[in-house]
Amino acid sequence: MEQPNRENLKNFNMNSLPSLDTVVLGALEMLTTETVPTLDVTNLKRPLVVGSGNAEATGRILFAETDAIFASESSVDDKLSHIDDIDEVVVVSASGGKHAPILARKARDAGKHVTLITNTPNSPAQRELSDSEITALVYPKNREPYTYNTSTYMSMMMGLTHEDPAAIKRFIEEQIDTLELPDLSQFDKYYLIVPPKFADVIRMLHVKFIELFGRNIARDVETSEYVRHATTVAPSNNELFISFGEPNTTWGNTNNRLNVPLPKDANYIAMVAVGYYVIAQIQKAHPQYFKENIDAYCQFISGVFGESIMPIVDGTV
Known about the structure:
single chain, alpha/beta, Rossmann fold, 15% strand
């Protein structure tokens, strides 16, 4: 099978950074050929699942059907101190760097074994502990711009959901690419509405907006149930309501509604892929806030974390 988007990701540079839709299609192409570790959550009784940003959101998706406790780097100390029956600490981190080594040490100091879910072989977090203290599940990833983290978290989800990435890619090409989109450049506010069963994707879509647009474009993301709860009291001009999988016949001006289909029996990889793909169309319609600032940001954030963070992250395949 030809993989044009994945080939593109192998060769871009700082002058040709891809938009998010190329990265989505490249991730789906990767998942059609690469083997991912199966994530078996049945042997854990009360795991503490920890991550930062979209890693935390991915952890919630992966362990949604377990009796897991969820935490970020901001709340992990409180959880470890006050919940006695935690039987494992699961650290989700694509890079295995930044906060991940700190989280691994905290788990060890609390007497807990660590499962590291990552996309980086022999990462800093894995090196922080002995082989008996940590088990690393290493998932494949494509070469991508820093923060896009699309192939990374989708490959982790693949270890649980085992969806058909080729079918999802066909759906995007046949059903999403053929949608009649409004002029997205005319909107500076977006309200994304997702089906209730995908409530755990809300944080991922929020974070992607933050990464791509900062505060230059307003956004909200809620489920079709929660949207009823006083989220539209103060109407806004130039706001587009985008509904995924369920037609929106209620919210926003009738001319400011976009209904985006999802595959039948869609699971989380399909939801993330379609959601990110639509956000990419917004990205392409507006000034390139991300592309113009990511290099300077990486220089700044490297100093904050005390480690080298590059604007282009190498793949493992």
